[in-house]
Design goal:
β19 (579-587) and β20 form a beta hairpin. This protein has an eight-stranded mixed barrel with strand order 29-30-32-33-34-35-36-37, surrounded by four helices. Strands 7-8-6-11-10-9 form a six-stranded antiparallel sheet. It has a five-stranded antiparallel sheet with strand order 2-1-5-4-3, with helices on both faces. α2 runs antiparallel to α9 (320-391), α3 packs antiparallel against α4 (117-134) and α26 runs parallel beside α28. The chain contains 34 helices and 37 strands. It is of the alpha+beta class. Helix content is 47%, strand content 24%. The radius of gyration is 66 Å and the shape is flat. The chain folds into five domains: 4-10 and 393-501, 2-Layer Sandwich (Beta-Lactamase), CATH 3.30.450.20; 69-322, PAS domain (Beta-Lactamase, 2-Layer Sandwich), CATH 3.30.450; 516-624, PAS domain (Beta-Lactamase); 644-797, Alpha-Beta Plaits (2-Layer Sandwich), CATH 3.30.70.270; 824-1060, EAL domain (TIM Barrel).
């Protein structure tokens, strides 16, 4: 912050605030109760000083005493090492002398020269026993020149080294006696010597003597007044040596074995102490207290002759007396120190209490004077703050030498900053939010004032921490020092934001009024003169502002007198309303007028009343409202009327029906008719959709004429229509007969004559229902009934139609469950040649094993299957089971001719039939020529004849045989037989049943057989039940027959047995 005004002062520099010093001041202030109890921190500080001094002196004395305490330990280790080295030299010299005597001795030398190993070993054994007893020799060995063992004797027979030791190899290398510390062949540290054995200047081998170090260690322990403990790792000895070592006095501790070389008892936890280490080299000094004695364990390292290995022993030294002396000296020093400190404390405490009393009395006097002055200053400050708060004026000052800034409380409120901040921090935070242009303005203004030592006055904007802006008016002056240099700045900051905003809003409102698209006028309420008009008003009226000053309301409002205007605005004048609206016309200067909507309000200005009039030119709005009304009418016509027929559509029907069949309506329509055009799809397919549209358009016109005033016709969708009676007294029979007759009149389309007809269903209200939905459902059931009865008729709804519909719905649900649960199965009926009596085919017939009704024949459910989308699913089940049976019979080797499957008309045109045949043929690997598809005559007379023919052609090309089932009962013509892909005919059982009693039936059968022969297609005669029928048919030709006389329909197992019997005896079949 101060960087912006850093050059205003001449000699000052910023004051450095030290954080650590501030913290100390705060701690002292809290600790001394704001200076009232200065004895508290002084006492604590003095006591701390005394304690630290005593402890430091005591620690120094304890350190010196510890050094004295540690000297015997260091001296003991040094002495032990010196004695150990001396004993090694003495022992090594003795071993050398012994080896010299052995190498020059008589018996062993003679045995060695003679190569008598037995004599050599006997002499060596005698010598080793003597040496071990009198000279503590633990090993005696003789080696050949190649260092192989010739003889070896040990105190303990624990192990034999795999390779020669270092001293032996060194003696061979240098040819002289070698000696030093080394592991003997049992793995213990010993003093060893190796001498080359030469006889007559010829090397015969090497002699080795090893002496145990036990006596040496015992001597050292006695000399230095310490226990010496031998220590080795367990893994250096064979696993089986533990028992032998135990007999020798060795104990185990973790990875070590150890042995005390003295008769003194070891500390109780010494074994636990050793167990903590992994290597002997890691053993460190430790104090052991046991039985009132303080013993320190430290290590004694022994270097081997090869300098690469060493063995560590443990020295256990009794330091009890030294430690007691150390404690006594330390305690004496500590006691003397605390005694001296206590004496100093007594003197210091008396001085502190006297000083505290003097400080308290002086402080109380000063505080009283300060409180009186402070109260007076606080009152003045409060008055100033209240005045600043009311006027929204903050004051501030800045010392140009020290750069210290002080803000008044209102200054913090204006800037939106925390009053806890000091002046410098607040100014820095405020300046950090200001743009650079504003900072330059402030800096330049203050700099100029400081240079000229004059006052300053400027305005600028500030930005608060929350992002809001305030407009500030700054005024102040510069105070100079004795050298006439600028020293301090005193200033006020006035928050003029509200005034500034009011000015801006006034200008903005004026601009808005002038730029408004509405006409705005100010009218003198007494004279009704126009005192102001905005730009829009002047342009619309064609007057200038000067011309309008001479006009009154009457001049621009044609037909309105002064009295009428006063009456219009009287509610405003009397205060009954705050505003009012009025629609009328305004008169332009050129004499033309235009419609307006005017809003009046009353406004008080300088003790006079004005009317504010806002006029809106509604010329375009009136035009748009008319367009909207027209568009709404057109949208309603499109939404609720059918463009093709000119009738109201389905949405309109539902909307009006909701009103006419409302339960509150007492005059509900008498009936509802649901109708559609018969065979309408055929018209579209044969003559095209233009013909269909013509038919619908004409049907709509005829229905509208038939209904007249009695009913209203609606186009429900497609070729369906709904008629609703106009009243509760209308007669549906009259209307239905009239509509039926009207719809039968032929229509012309491009030279083609169309003979339309319609089927209708009637539901009466309230007998068949009182709601539109229920009547529509019942009328639809009646329409369906009319379709079933042959079309071109009308039917009343009857309750049994609902029952039939419910029954069909239940049957459909059970059929779906049956397909899912595989409840359908096949029975098979054979077909045989009437003359050869050979099996020519087997017809597969479906049956339903119902869980509660037993086995059901197709007549009980096929009608429901055809009405739903289940025909394809059931047809696929039948095809699968039939081809599976044919595959089984083929695998057995039975000759069954062809397997015949009945094809549902719905399955035929479903689009799935060909794919189902191809999939099943591929699944069961059957030749298509073994499969016959039986179709009814009716498939060639429905609306999807072309689709049916295409599918049959594709099946025929696949190789599947096509037979026309129940031929003679429908309307099939000879042209169908000749033109369609048909491989055979099945003469219906009705002809066979009357063969013997009706001569005409016999003639028809005979002619059909001859026709089939002429067309080279097969014939199957169904319904053969008696021998007489068989004989009569046999005389008519060579063809196949099927019926109860041959066999009744049977399940797969029985059919298999029947085929097996028929293959053995052809007479069996009849």
């Amino acid at each position: 912050m101060n960087s912006h005004v850093s050059d205003l002062g001449k000699n000052g520099s910023p004051k450095t605030q030290k954080r650590f010093s501030d913290r100390l001041d705060a701690v002292f202030k809290n600790w001394s109760a704001d200076g009232r109890l200065i004895s508290r921190p002084l006492k604590v500080t003095f006591i701390g000083f005394l304690v630290v001094t005593v402890l430091a002196l005591t620690a120094q004395n304890a350190l010196n005493e510890y050094r004295n305490f540690a000297k015997p330990i260091i001296a003991t280790t040094s002495s032990a090492e010196t004695l150990l080295e001396h004993q090694r030299q003495v022992a090594s010299l003795g071993l050398e002398q012994a080896l010299l005597g052995i190498s020059s001795g008589g018996r062993m030398k003679q045995a060695m020269l003679a190569g008598d190993i037995d004599s050599l070993e006997a002499s060596a054994d005698s010598l080793f026993r003597e040496l071990s007893v009198f000279h503590a020799i633990s090993e005696f060995s003789i080696y050949s020149p190649d260092l192989s063992v010739v003889y070896q004797a040990h105190e303990l027979d624990l192990q034999t080294p795999d390779t020669p030791d270092y001293l032996l190899q060194l003696a061979k290398k240098i040819g002289v006696t070698t000696r030093g510390f080394a592991f003997d062949d049992n793995g213990f540290l010993s003093i060893s010597a190796v001498r080359p054995w030469t006889i007559n200047d010829e090397l015969k081998g090497f002699l080795k003597l090893s002496r145990k170090v036990d006596e040496v260690l015992t001597f050292i322990g006695t000399s230095v007044n310490a226990q010496v403990i031998k220590l080795y790792r367990k893994d250096a000895f064979p696993r089986g040596s533990a028992q032998a070592l135990s007999r020798e006095g060795w104990a185990q501790a973790g990875p070590f074995i150890y042995k005390n070389t003295s008769h003194q008892k070891l500390p109780a936890h010494f074994a636990d102490y050793l167990a903590k280490f992994d290597q002997t080299a890691s053993i460190y000094e430790r104090i052991n207290y046991d039985g009132g004695q303080l013993k320190i364990a430290h290590s004694l390292a022994v270097s081997h002759a090869d300098r690469d290995h060493h063995t560590t022993f443990v020295l256990l030294q009794d330091m009890t007396d030294e430690f007691i002396a150390f404690l006594q000296s330390t305690a004496l020093s500590l006691g003397i120190g605390f005694a001296l400190a206590f004496g100093f404390w007594l003197i210091f405490n008396r001085l502190i209490h006297a000083l505290q009393r003097l400080v308290l009395s002086t402080r109380q006097r000063l505080e009283k004077e300060v409180q009186e002055n402070t109260a007076e200053l606080e009152a003045s400050r409060n008055r100033l703050q209240q005045a600043q708060k009311v006027a929204s004026i903050g004051s501030w000052e800045m010392d140009l030498i020290t750069k210290e800034v002080h803000w008044s409380e209102e200054m913090y409120n204006i800037a939106g900053l925390d009053p806890e901040l000091d002046g410098n921090a607040a100014q820095n935070q405020l300046f950090s939010l200001l743009p650079s242009e504003t900072l330059r303005l402030i800096e330049n203004s203050l700099k100029e004032a400081a240079e000229k030592s004059q006052g300053f006055d400027f305005e600028h904007e500030i930005i608060r921490p929350g992002g809001s802006t305030r407009h500030i008016h700054v005024r102040g002056n510069i105070q100079t020092d004795e050298f006439s240099d600028a020293a301090k700045v005193f200033a006020t900051s006035h928050d003029i934001t509200d005034w500034h905003l009011a000015q801006q809003q006034s200008l903005l409102l004026a601009d808005i009024l002038e730029a408004s698209m509405n006409e705005v006028y100010l009218i003198d309420a007494r004279t009704l003169n126009i005192e102001y008009a905005n730009s829009c008003g002047r342009e619309n009226l064609g007057y200038s502002m000067a011309e309008l000053f001479d006009c009154t309301v009457r001049d621009i409002s044609p037909g309105m007198t002064i009295e009428q205007f006063n009456s219009l605005v009287s509610p405003l004048r009397e205060g009954k309303q705050s505003y009012l609206k009025h629609e009328g016309h305004q008169l332009r200067k050129d004499g033309s007028s235009y419609p307006v909507e005017v809003r009046f309000q009353k406004y008080l200005e300088h003790n006079r009343d004005l009317y504010v009039a806002i006029a809106i030119d509604v010329t375009e709005r009136a035009a748009r409202e008319q367009e909207i009304r027209d568009a709404r009418d057109e949208a309603e016509r499109i939404a609720y009327f059918d463009a093709l027929t000119g009738l109201a559509n389905r949405a309109c029907c539902q909307r009006e029906a909701a009103i006419r069949f409302d339960k509150t309506n007492q005059n509900k329509p008498a009936f509802l008719i649901h109708l559609d055009l018969d065979n309408f799809k055929r018209i579209n397919d044969t003559l095209g959709h233009l013909a269909g549209d013509l038919c619908l358009e004409e049907a709509g016109r005829r229905l509208r004429d038939c209904c007249g005033e009695d009913a209203t016709a609606y186009r429900w969708g497609g070729d369906e229509f709904v008629i609703i009676a106009s009243s509760s007294a209308a007669d549906p029979a009259v209307l239905c007969n009239r509509a039926t007759s009207a719809m039968r009149i032929p229509m012309e389309f491009e030279g083609n004559q169309i003979w339309p007809s319609t089927s209708m269903g009637v539901a009466c209200c309230p007998a068949d229902g009182e709601t539109f939905e229920s009547l529509l459902v019942h009328a639809d059931l009646a329409l369906y009934h009319s379709k079933e009865k042959g079309k071109d008729r009308w039917s009343y709804f009857a309750e049994d139609m609902k029952l039939d519909s419910d029954a069909e719905a239940e049957t459909e649900k059970e059929l779906r469950r049956a397909i899912a649960n595989d409840e359908f199965f096949l029975v098979f009926q054979p077909q045989v040649n009437i003359r050869t009596r050979n099996v020519t085919g087997v017809e597969a017939l479906v049956r339903w094993r119902h869980p509660t009704k037993g086995v059901l024949a197709p007549g009980a459910f096929l009608s429901v299957v055809e009405k739903t989308n289940l025909a394809s699913q059931l047809g696929r089940v039948v095809l699968d089971k039939a081809l599976q049976a044919a595959r089984n019979w083929t695998d057995i080797g039975f000759r069954f001719g062809q397997i015949s499957v009945n094809i549902s008309p719905t399955h035929l045109v479903s689009g799935n039939l060909l794919a189902d045949f191809e999939e099943m043929i591929d699944t069961y690997n059957l030749p298509p020529s073994l499969i016959t598809a039986e179709v009814l005559e009716s498939v060639f007379f429905d609306d999807k004849k072309s689709d049916s023919t295409d599918v049959l052609e594709q099946l025929h090309q696949l190789g599947v045989q096509i037979e026309l089932d129940d031929f003679g009962t429908g309307y099939a013509s000879l042209s169908h037989v000749a033109d369609l892909p048909i491989n055979g005919l099945k003469i219906d059982r009705t002809f066979t049943a009357k063969l013997l009693s009706d001569h005409k039936k016999e003639i028809v059968i005979n002619q059909l057989i001859h026709l089939a022969r002429a067309l080279d297609i097969g014939v199957i005669c169904e319904g053969l039940e008696t021998d007489a029928q068989f004989e009569r048919l046999r005389m008519m030709g060579n063809f196949s027959v099927q019926g109860y006389l041959i066999a009744r329909p049977m399940e797969f197992e029985n059919m298999t047995s029947w085929l097996e019997a028929s293959s053995k005896d052809t007479l069996f079949v009849i």
